[in-house]
Amino acid sequence: MADKREKEFLQAYEKYADDIYRHCYFRVYSKQLAEDITQETFIKTWKYISDGKEVKNIKSFLYRVAVNLIIDYSRKKKEMYLEDVAKKESADSIRLTNMGHQEAIFAHFEAQEIVKLLDELPDSQKQVMVLRYVDEIMPAEIADILGETANAISVRINQATAKLREIIKEKHERRN
Fold first, then answer.
1. Could you give the domains of the chain?
2. Whether the Cβ atoms of residue 65 and residue 101 lie closer than 8 Å to each other
3. pLDDT (tens digit per residue) in 69-102
4. Which residues, at least 6 apart from 79, have a Cβ–Cβ distance to it below 8 Å?
5. What is the spatial distance between Cα 91 and Cα 110, in angstroms, rounded to a whole number?
6. How far, in Å, CA of 43 to CA of 22, rounded?
């Protein structure tokens, strides 16, 4: 039984470690801190599993642990390990795909500019936007990760999108 749990955990690590790291990075903007939170996410998950506790959806569970660790980090307000914002991921490495009708909104902005715009959103909106458009997670699964209803998540995504439209419009008007 322990071997089966270990094998499943290692498979989950192989499958989701990069996704969890990317999510953490886009929330804390520090390579070192994102690596630390990712590592702690998998350590806590392994402890939970090795204690014989059941995890029904490992992906959601990992994201939930990572989100909670990020919240804990922000609450503690310890020394910030923020690296220079200019060192954020390059435009081609940021995956802002599957945006559908929102593509037109973001068409004139480089990916780094969009990431900077996300910083202007309230944390709860930024969180769902990163989960949805960077991590490419559907609203129902985001709801599972955050322990909320899918409707509440969809509303928050729509509010964040509307807020981004306002921010983009204001920036565009200031440029002209």
1. 2-76 (1.10.1740.10), 91-175 (1.10.10.10)
2. no
3. 998 888 774 444 333 333 444 333 444 444 444 5
4. none
5. 6
6. 17
**Tally of residues, the chain:** 176
How far apart CA 11 and CA 45 sit, in angstroms, is 13
First-residue to last-residue Cα distance in the chain: 65
Q: Looking at per-residue confidence, does 79 or 30 come out higher?
A: 30
In the chain, the amino acid numbered 123 is D
> Of residues 171 and 82, which shows the higher confidence score?
171
- The pair of three-digit structure tokens given for residue 44, joined into one six-digit string: 């806590």
3-state secondary structure of 80: coil
Distance from CA of residue 129 to its chain's centroid? Answer: 8
